[in-house]
Every structure is written in C-alpha cells, then in structure tokens.
Design goal:
One of its GO terms (cellular component) is plasma membrane. It comes from Mucilaginibacter pallidiroseus. By secondary structure, the protein is an alpha+beta fold. The chain folds into 3 domains: 190 residues, no CATH class; 208 residues, no CATH class; 202 residues, no CATH class. The chain is 48% helix and 18% strand. The strands form 3 sheets. A 6-stranded mixed β-barrel has the order 4-5-10-7-9-8. It starts with a helix and ends with a helix.
Length: 798
Amino acid sequence: MIKNYFKIAFRNLWKNRISSAINIVGLSVGIAACIIIILFVSYERSFDNFQGDNIYRISEVQKFPGMAASQKVGLSMAPMGPALKAEYPEVKNFTRVRWNDKYQVTYGEKRMFLPCAYAVDSAFFKIFNFKIVKGSPQGDISKPNNILITQQTAEKLFGNSDPIGKVINHFGSDTAKFTVTGILANVPKNSQMQFDAIFSINSLPKNRMESWGGNWLNTYLEMAPETNMATFEKKMPAFLKKHIEGEGSKFYELFYMPFKDIHANSTEIGLDYVNFRKFDKKSTNLFAVIALIVLVIACVNFMNLSTARSADRAKEVGIRKSIGANRSQLALQFLGETVLLSLLALVISIILVEVSLPYINNLSQRELNLPILTSPGFLFAILMGTIMVGVLSGIYPALFLSSFQPVKVLKGSVDTGKNKGALRNVLVVGQFICAVFLMIATVLVVKQLNFMQQKDPGFTRDQIVTVPLDRITSRNYELFKQQLSGNTLIKGITGAQDQLGGHLDQSGVEFKYKDNPLQNLASTRLVVDANYLKLYNIKIAAGTNFSEEKSANGREYVINEALAKELLKDYPKAKMESLIGQRFGFDSLGVITGIAKNFNFNSLHHKIETMYIFNQKDWGFNTVSIKIKAGASKEAINFIKQTWEKLNPDNPFEYQFLDDHFAEVYRADSQVSKIVGILAALAIAISCLGLFGLASFSAEKRVKEIGVRKVLGASVQGIVVLLSGHFVKLVLISNIIAWPLAWYVMNKWLQDFAYRIEITWSTFSLVALLSVLIALLTISYQSVKAAITNPIKSLRSE
C-alpha cells in the first residue's frame, strides 16, 4: 500500500510538473531563508552562553551641567569594584577590565602587535569561564607583571617551544617586562570579550587605581544568587554620595546589566569598548519574523495551488472512496505527498544554504556554518520542522480533497467551489500584503541609511586619510607632518586625540561670563592641532580660529553653537558673539576665541551634543588626518607609507579613509538594510511564483472561454486584460491594506534616529507601481500565451 502511495505521489508530481516545481522551489527558498536566519539568530543568542549566571556589569548614566541630554556609558570608576565588595554582602566578587588595543610585545627578535590585551583583577578567572590550558589554575594573575597569552599568540611568538616562565617585553610609554605564567585557550568568537593576552591590573599605577571621578575601565560583579538587583540599585545613590566629594555624586546613576544581555541590549550605551560586534536584539528578532513570513508565503503557495488543482484529482478520490477508502486514509495519503514534497524541498534548501553561506558570512561578518554532520540535534530539528511545514501547508488541501462525494465527482459535477476561489483570493492578498510591506520597509530603510551617509555632517570627509598613533609614534607627529607637507600629493595634515564618527570623551570645565559667578559644567571635548578646523572645513560662526602662535590670553577654546546656547541659557538677552573673549576652560582658565557651526561629530543616531575644542599639542595625538590630492590616492598612500616607515620602522603602517570609517559607524544599519532587502526580495519572488502558478491554472481552466471570445472577435489585448485584471486587483487591494501597517511600523522604527527621513506618499506609490509591474510581468507570459492560442484547438472537442 505504501509503495503504491509513493508511485501515485511521484506520478502526480511528474504530471503537474509546473505546479510541483513552483511548490518545491518556493518551499526550498522559504526553508533556506529560515535555516539561514535560524543560524544567525542562534549565533547571536549563543553569545556568552558558556559563562556563568549572576554576573553583572556596572554601567553609568551621566548627566552633567552643560550636556544637552544624559548618556549611558559602559565605563565605571576604578575604585568602585573593591568598595562595593567591601560594603555590600550581595557582592561575592569583582574584577575590573582595562583593554589595551595594539599592545606591542617582543620576545628575542620577534615583535608583534596583539590586537587586544586586558589588564584584570585576580578574580577574573573565578568569575569568567575562560580556560587556562597550561600553567597554574588562576595564572598567578594577582602578581604585577605576570601575563597569560592565548594559544594563538603563543604559537606566533614562541613557535613550538614552551612559553611558561619566559619573559616578554612591552614597549610603550609604560615599557614593562612580563613573565608568561599561563596559556589560555583561544577565545570563542561568540564572546563579547576578545583578547590575546591578560596581565595583572596591579601592573598599572596605584594612584590611578584609587582615583574616583575618572571612568576608564569596565567593572564586573559576581552577585549572590538570591540578590534582588532592583533593590540593590536603589542603594547606589547613597554609595556614590559616600565616595564622590561635593556635588559630584548627583551627576551619576549606576545601573547593572546582566553579562549575558550586554551583547544584544547595548545599542544605546556609549563608550562600550569591551563588546565584540554588538548587535541590536530588535534587529535579530526582526529577521526571525521576516524569515517566518517568507516561509508562510511559501506554505500559502502550496495551499493555493493544491486547492486550485483539486478538480484534477476529484475522480481519483471518487474511485478510491467507491472501492472502500475512507476519508482519513485519503487525507493521510495527501498529507504524505505534501510531506514528501517538503522533504524534497529540504534537500534543495540545504544546497542553497551551503552555496549562500559565504556571502551571508561576508555580509554579516559572522562565521555561520551549517552543522548537518556535526550536530544531530540540529539535523533532527530542521527535519521535524520541515515535516511540520509539510503538514501545516497540506492539511487544508488534504481535508478538502478527501471531502469530495464519490457520486458527484464520478458524474463530473464536482464543485471546486466559489468559496474556494474566494479563499484563494484571500491567501493571495495575504501574500502580497507581506511582500508589499517588506518592499516599503526595504525602501525606507535604504533611504534612511543613504540619508545618514550622504547628509552633510558639517565638515569635509572626502579625500581624508586617517593614521592611528600610539604613545610612541605620537612623539614623531611634528616630524611626520613636516616631511609630508612638502609633497604636492598632500593638501594638509592635522592631528587630534580622537577621531570624528565615534563617541568622544567628556570632561568638566569652568566658565565665567563677564562679572558673573564662575560656573562648573561638562561637555564633549576634542584636543586638536591648530589647523584642525581648517583641514576639516568646519565653519566659524563667530570669532576666529586658533592662533598659530601661542596666545597671550592662555589656552584658546573654540566651542560649538550647541555649547554657546547652553552657556547663555541664563542670559537670554545676550548674543552669541558676546562669548568671544570670555573666560573658559580648566586648570588656569583660557578664553573662548571662536564659535564653530554645529557639526555631527557622532553618528546621526544622536543629536549634536555640546562640544569644546582646544589646541594642546604637548598632550599628544592619537590620530593623524591627511587630506590627499583627488585622483591620486594610490600615489599619496604609497608616499605616506614610505614616510611613516622611515620615521617609525618598528611600527606597522595602518590607515583608513574617513569615508570608510563612517561606513563602519553605520555598519549595523547597513547589515539590517541588506538582510531585510534580501528577505523582501525572496518574499516577492515566492509570491510571484504562486501568482504564476495560479495564472497558469486560470488560463488553463478558461481555455474554451478564451476560444469563444476570440471567435466572436475579442482582441489579444482584451483577453490579456481579462486574464490579468483579476490578479492586478488583488495586488492593489494588498497595497491598500499594507500601507497603513507599513507606515505605523516604519514610523516607530525611525524614532530611534535623531535625524531621519520623512515618510512620503511617493514611497507608497512607487512600491504600488513596482508590485503591479512585477505581478503583470509574472502573469503576462501565461496571459499572452492563452490569448494567442489558436481557438480551433481549444474548441475542437466541442
């Protein structure tokens, strides 16, 4: 019996090749999209799952006078961890983490730059589950100048020899010798912490570790399991007031994030340096929902085509029932055929996933893989999921087909029904509602991304190359600048402590307006070379730029319009120009020499903050900005590299175009737009496959009607309109329903951006036009084919 069922199933698949192919391809694409998104979501949700529970990071809400809005930061003060453990029994343990990028180490003749080295407390390995594969269990990390390195670092630095006990040197302003006391297993890629070496935080200056007020590291706490964190947080105002002098405590709030939530829930947190490839949980959930929609559309296709072709199998049902088959047997047979088709689609979808994964990995910057052979659980899950898809998509057609009455169908009076046609229309409309919604979402996401990337930020980004400096190479800044300046390929060179497009540091300053009392406030700051504003073409709204020579008034400050407005909020009648020459700054007060027009020094997710800029070369710079000649990028980069290697032979040359840096700032937004676009395209493609199948069926069933119409003089164009009009109407209805839904959802999404596009009706009109054109192109082949068929062939049997 089962063998017979298989024969019938394959015969029906072959007999209805077009509809079978449409079903298999649609299901394959839908299942493939779901598998890829499942892999992505699983990867994101696997971050830090190997760590224990009850681990929290201290984070701060900072609201200083002079700042337009409060900000959340992932940093904390160095003494907080020890003080919390000493004063609160809820805190079982703590560790602090200070990251060090491009950490230079040497052993003998070998020199390398570790991408990142952490300075940590001795409890680091008690709190976190990073494995020490060789050496003492805790790596003696409590002792100054002890270091543990990863297996990868050990291989690069020591080859096959045993590193334990060997001494490596670190060169920098804090030159030190470290003894290797342990080898760490390479850090998993799904860890928010990524490091190549770990050394004792006791190696850092003691006075820095005991200073309250400065935020420059991360603090993690291991809490007692029964701790109520909401209650614990309520104790923090008193804790801050106890340890921070004067009024300073009221400018901070402490909140605690579960360690496993940090990777996916830190979008709004700035200065989040120890958080590898953080990605918004909302975007991950969005991908999952859209992938499910794509799969549902594929299932709807199957239901539509199966019920549409029900008349083709009506006599089979009638004969089987007349010889004793009951309804449950027939339903199971038809469900079995659906599951078989789904399993065929699964095989094809696995091939599609394997082919597309390299592109997906490149796009997402992840290392996704299909664990078919390595994870029996995953294979079982997608197998069961596919069978469920087959059952869900085939259950209605199976029940519908098995319900035919044998007397009626054998007389040829089977009613495939007006009601069934209405259901198919509803399903088609539902498909295209999803497709149109995704089309609108894709257009608006892309428009918002383009808006952010192309909006004038208030400074020049074109043809600017940035070169990072460290504490060693920054000493050669002036010489580097001099040697580059004489070449016609170079249009300008300047330096700064921070690079635009990132979260800049804030610090406190003082301000005295005329004879009024001294004010204390805080603002974003940027330390620059004197020609910085000129190279970046930042406009001056009032006053002047920095003096090339040292000013007689002391340190000079240029503030932005946002800070000028904040400084004058208590003097509503004062004009902005009145700030020029007023006392401002820290240490011995300097003067405000200029007011710069507002510019977006951060991403457009954020409003323009208050900012002051000052020229302080002797503090050293962390980045060099070089404006190069247009059309000569390759030659200019080669010249810069040669100059660098002469001055800094022991330091590798690194550079980045400023445009590329800002593209990285919007990396997550770009990934979201591309992935949503791909899923939208798949939804449209699958919907169009279903439309093609229904158009084919409709033309086939109306072949005699078309023949009669042609004999009576109907034109080809008229017949095409007749066959196409019904489907175009369904697509237009889908647009009308999808528009308000898309407007509501996308308007909510755009609220996350400080600067955003307006949702205009032109977007909806464009999508409506595109959806109708796509539908027409999809059904035009079948419509035209039916319209030009010789009516003699279709009417011959009459």
